[in-house]
Amino acid sequence: MKCPFCNCLNTKVVDTRPNDENSSIRRRRSCEVCGKKFTTYEKVENIPLIVIKKNRFRETFDKDKLMNGIMRSCHKRPVSFSQIEKIVDEIENTALNSLQKEIESEKIGELVMSKLKDIDEVAYIRFVSVYRQFKDIDTFMNELQKLIKPSTKAEDYDVYKS
Fold this sequence. Notes:
This protein folds into two domains: 33 residues; 90 residues. 40% of the residues lie in helices and 20% in strands. It is built from five helices and six strands, in the order E-E-E-E-E-H-H-E-H-H-H. A three-stranded antiparallel beta sheet has the order 1-2-3, with no helix packed on it. A three-stranded mixed beta sheet has the order 5-4-6. Helix 3 packs antiparallel against helix 4. It is elongated, with a radius of gyration of 26 Å.
């Protein structure tokens, strides 16, 4: 660390303490040339995660936006708020741990779908129907068919069948 008084590179740490609820470290330093003391702070650098939208525009990752989307899918379903928070945290951690500065919204959507599928199938279908923008009942039924046991057919669930 360069001394702010004489610009010498020979400084030593005299004291180290956590600061701001352990989110940074305060260091007292002493210049070995001029003898003056000064303080430095060390903290983790947060690099914002950028989401690449379907239209190729970019925006900052918004945890609240993700939470709201999942909550809408889970409305009136037996999914607890802590389960939703866990999904959001896991997705955020997956994105941040990928060491990429940007992530495509499609990847986030796929992660949400895989998490919801394990927790609540109705919430999963709600999310998929909005995310994949189903154009007709056939594409919707195809997605439902993926959830139905392989030995059964979609016709078995036809409410208009006589």
